[in-house]
Amino acid sequence: MSNHNKLVLTTFILTVITFCFGLYLTADEMTHSFKNPSFSGVGTSAHYLTIENQETNRKQAIADEIKAYQEDLAREAENTTLARFIRNLESRIYAQLSRQLVDNLFGETVNSSGTLELEGNTIEYSTDGDYITLIITDSDGNTTEITLPIGDFSF
C-alpha cells in the first residue's frame, strides 16, 4: 500500500469516527446570571422586604431589651431596704394624719372646721352638726367637695 492510499484511508477512517462521535455530542450556549437579586433584579422587592424586616426586627429587639433593662433597674431601686422603709414610714404618717382628722371630726372634742396641707393639696373640713363637708383643692386649683351625713354614717 502506498503512502497516498494510507493517507486517504486514514482520512476516511477519521472522518467516519468524527461523524459517528459527532452524533452523540451536543453543546448549548453558555449563559451567566447573578444569583443575588440586587444584581439580577429577579425577586428584588422580596429581597429588599426581607432585609427591611430583619432590620426592623433587630431594632425592635434592641429597644425591647433596653426597656426591659430599665424596668429591671427601676424595680431594683424600688425594692431596696431604704425604699421599703420610706414607703412604710409614709404609710404610717398618712394613717396617723387620717386618724387625727377622724378624731377632729368624730372624736370627743369635735372641731367645727379645720384645714390640712398635704403635698400641695389643701383639705378643708367643716361640720354643721348634721353633715361633714370636705373640700379638697389640688395644686392646680381643681376642687372636689364631699358631703357626709353624720347620723346615717355606719356600716
Report strand %: 15-25%
Largest sheet: 4 strands, antiparallel
Number of strands: 4
Overall average pLDDT: 82
State the share of residues found in helices, binned by percent: 55-70%
- N→C terminal distance: 139 Å
Quaternary structure annotation: single chain
Query: Which sequence of SSEs, written as H and E, runs from N to C?
Result: HHHHEEEE
Arrangement of strands in the largest sheet: 1-2-3-4
Helix/strand/pairing class, anyone? Answer: alpha+beta
Shape: rod-shaped
Supply Rg: 48 Å
Describe this structure in words.
This protein is an alpha+beta fold and 155 residues long. Among the domains are: 44-78; 81-149. Helix content is 56%, strand content 17%. The protein has helices at residues 3-24, 37-40, 44-78, 81-106; strands at 113-118, 121-127, 131-137, 143-149. Strands 1-2-3-4 form a four-stranded antiparallel beta sheet, with no helix packed on it. Strand 3 (131-137) and strand 4 (143-149) form a beta hairpin. The protein is rod-shaped. The mean pLDDT is 82.
Set out the fold topology.
Elements: H1 3-24, H2 37-40, H3 44-78, H4 81-106, E1 113-118, E2 121-127, E3 131-137, E4 143-149
Antiparallel strand pairs: 1-2, 2-3, 3-4
What's the short version?
With 155 residues, this protein is an alpha+beta fold.
Question: What are the main properties of this structure?
Answer:
4-stranded antiparallel sheet; 4 helices; 4 strands; rod-shaped; 155 residues; alpha+beta; 56% helix
